Structures are given as C-alpha cells and as structure tokens.
Amino acid sequence: MPPFIRVSNLTMGWGDVILQRNLTFQVDRGDVFAILGGSGCGKSTLLRYLIGLETPLSGEIVIDGLGRPNLEVGRPPFGVMFQSGALFGSLTVGENIGLSLEQWTPLSHDAIGAIVRAKLRLVGLDGAENKLPSELSGGMKKRAAIARALALEPPLVFLDEPSAGLDPVSAVELDELILTLNQVLGLTVVLVTHELPSIFKIARRCIMLDKQTKSILAEGDPCDLRDNSAEPRVREFFNRLAKRA
Fold first, then answer.
1. pTM value?
2. Do 137 and 49 lie in a common domain?
3. Which residues is 226 bridged to in the sheet?
C-alpha cells in the first residue's frame, strides 16, 4: 500500500532562517512513528508543518494521497493531541471532546453525548465528561486530549510529547494506551517525543532530526539505531551518553 504520509524535500523556516532542510521520509499505514532529536532541532515544528499549521519554504507533504492539509477547508483527516493536552479550560471534558463533532457532523446532542462517553471509556476516563480540565491530573488531561483527537474516528493521530511531565507509572500507562489504540483500532500514530523508554517501547520507526546539520541524522528502528548506528551522535542520544569533548 502507498505510505499514509509522504514528505519530500521539505524545508522548514521563516524568511532567511532555515530550521531544517530537504527532509524526506514516509510513514506507513498502521505504523507508530516517532520524530526525535535534541532540544531546538524542530521536532514540534515539524509536526505543525505536517498538520498544516505552517507553510513549507519548499518541498511537499502528502497525507493519504492528498496535498498538505488545509485546516480552513473541510474536515481534517487526522486527530491531534497537543503538548500538555491543550484542553479549553472553560469547557468541560465532554464539551472539549464534543466540539469537533458539533462542528463537522450533523449529529444530535444525545448522539454526540454517547460518542463522548464512548471515547472517554476507550481512554480509561469513564464518567469524566462533566469535569473541568482543572480537576484532572496531568495524565488524565493527556488521556482526555487523546479522546478528543479520536472523536471523529480518524485513521491517523499526531501526539506531541505525550509522556512529557508524567510520573513513570502514568507514562507507562499512556504508552500502553497508545499501543492498544494502534493494535486494536489499526490507528497510525506519529508522535514527537524525547522520552527514551517510550521510544523503545512503542515506536517501530523513527527519524532523528539534527540541529547542527539541519537534516535527518538517522532513520529506522529505534532499538537498531541504539545498538548498531555508525554515527556517534546517534548512539550518544539513544544511550544517554554525554557528548565527547
């Protein structure tokens, strides 16, 4: 099958400032694909380009055979969990999840409520629809944000730093949830992360962005890159080694 996402010669930046240049990679259907790299290399920015919030300086992004997403026209073919959840604080959890359903479907209030409850049950937050985001823990907020990303039942979700800021137990539980969604629903997952335990547990393929060369430094299976990469900086990243003098 053709790749779900195909990126060709993508250059990211603003004006004369180049963040990354000539990025070329693809994400297969049903994959769990990680975007990795050191601080400031452009991981979260690349995600913004993939979902259509930024316009490339050059290059092409194709998702599901279509061009770069236009978020102002038509229903998006994916769901997004932004860093820290990004739930609307003035809305209940249920209202946050139901927002996209109200915007993009003709469903009744009762039908939307049923879907909201089902999505919350799916992510382990059964009965949380009337709570405000301020009443949730960090892990619960991220689960609620994943439920919101799944509201329209997209075949693809983008997750920005899903495990960041969580305690070890909550992080492991979230990893298990992502794996379950991938395996049971066949969901294609693209995540931005720097959490090595999560990377080795759930990611099948990855790219590693490099701030110095402004390019992809490594691509492949994270465990294979950790153990066999010929590039010292890749081994240092995956094995948590200090940079050599």
1. 0.90
2. no
3. none
Residue 94 is encoded by which pair of tokens?
């249920």
Which sign does the torsion angle of CA 187, 30, 141, 96 carry? Answer: negative
- 83 assigned to some structural domain: no
- Please say if the pLDDT value at position 36 is more than 60: yes
User: Where in the sequence is the domain holding 222, given as residue range(s)?
Assistant: 1-78+155-245
Residue 161 shares a structural domain with residue 73: yes
Cα separation, 44 vs 20, whole angstroms: 12
Amino acid at site 32: V
Which residues, in sequence order, are CB contacts of 176 under 8 Å at separation 6+? none
Distance, CA of 196 to CA of 105 (rounded, Å): 39
What is d(CA 80, CA 145) in angstroms, rounded to the nearest whole number? 8
93 shares its domain with 144: yes
**Per-residue pLDDT tens digits for 86-133:** 888 899 999 999 999 998 989 999 999 999 999 999 998 998 999 999
Boundary (domain end) residue, out of 106, 126, 153: 153
- Lookup: tokens for 142: 């991220």
DSSP string, the chain: ---SEEEEEEEEEETTEEEEEEEEEEE-TT-EEEEEESTTSSHHHHHHHHTTSS--SEEEEEETTB-S--TTSS--SSEEE-TT----TTS-HHHHHHHHHHHH----HHHHHHHHHHHHHHTT-TT-TTS-GGGS-HHHHHHHHHHHHTTT--SEEEEESTTTT--HHHHHHHHHHHHHHHHHH--EEEEE---HHHHHHH-SEEEEEETTTTEEEEEE-HHHHHHH-S-HHHHHHHTTPPPP-
Q: Please, are residues 98 and 116 in contact by the beta-carbon 8 Å criterion? A: yes
